[in-house]
Amino acid sequence: MYKLLFKSFFRTKIFLVSLVLLLTVGVISILIGKQYLVKQEKAIAAAHVYQEESIKKNVEYHRDDLGLLLYYLRFTLVKKPANISAISIGQSDVNPLLQAVTIRGLEGQKYDTDFENPSLLMSGNLDLGFVIIYLFSIGINCHDF
Prior knowledge:
Blueprint lengths: L1 H10 L1 H49 L4 H7 L2 E4 L19 E4 L4 H4 L8 H6 L4 H14 L4
Antiparallel strand pairs: 1-2
Helix pairs in contact: 2-6
């Protein structure tokens, strides 16, 4: 009974269309995730260079006063993304991977986030986690119709 049901399901056009659509959206979501990781890696490299330049400038200006030097220095905290995070971006675009902090208020600065466009955040990210959780389950359940 189940063998016949699966055989008839795999022969339908809706199965082929949904399979092609699912694979296409899956590949697109992986490419979007990879693009996001490349963007983050570039930002991390730029922040590293900027921090070194900033430290050199501040050491030149405040060579004699350690208090002023620490007051004006900005340190970059980096939460380096893993390569597997391209599959599921999640909320890492809302919670930044880079954060510049000063000695003046470390505790409050840890929870600051970047400014983002709220209308773009409403739609969320097209990542592979979304494709597997939502679109794959829709594709499996569409044979009932």
